[in-house]
Amino acid sequence: MYKISDDLIQLGMERIKDFPVEGFVPGSGPDSPALMLVGEAPGENEVETRIPFTGRAGKELMASLSSVGLAREDVYITSAVRSRPYKWGSKKERDGSQSERKYNRAPTKKEIIAHAPILDAEIRDIDPPLIVTLGNVGLQRLVGPEAKVTQLHGVLMETPILKWDEENQRFEKTEQTYHILPTFHPASVFYNPPVRTLKEDDWRKIGALLKFKK
Ligand code: URA
What we know:
Elements: H1 6-16, E1 21-22, E2 36-39, H2 44-49, H3 56-67, E3 76-79, E4 84-92, E5 98-104, H4 109-114, H5 116-126, E6 131-134, H6 136-143, H7 149-152, E7 157-165, E8 170-183, H8 188-191, H9 195-213
Parallel strand pairs: 2-3, 2-6, 6-8
Antiparallel strand pairs: 1-4, 4-5, 7-8
The structure holds uracil.
Uracil is lined by residues 39-43, 46, 52-53, 57, 79.
């Protein structure tokens, strides 16, 4: 099992402490995974279990992995941000009363920058043979803000990726190139059901790539 250093966890907590986020969910998986999955940020379930993708989206993701003969233990799962970004909202109870609760939200650019050194270290140490980004947040973190999952899903790219340069306070391209195949975030099928067939096609491509490598 790969483990990021306690120092890096401390740094990540320190860099994100002024933003509305909670918890810290470490990435999870072996040192030499079949591939690395890069999602968005943990949600409510993950902050409780401290394991990525253990909620409803996780079930969907595990089905995709199993469709290509992989299980959670075979892959390294991480995301652009390792704490849960939340916003307060009100929920109407059955009895008509309102209660305040936390809702998940997408991470901001500042939060992504706060945790960039963590993802950079994971990619550097693990050097995955294939990176599968899940949704636009993971894709744009690594490839840039112009990249769109609707255009690039299912396309295998060999490309430098973005790495945070603390000294110059900007993302810089790596010298090394990586194999990246973007696909949709597993939760996207819940609010956009037609995406399911596109996502399944992408996973078939991922399965074919893995077979080719063996
Ligand atoms: N979405 C993510 O990107 N990561 C998780 O761990 C859960 C949901």
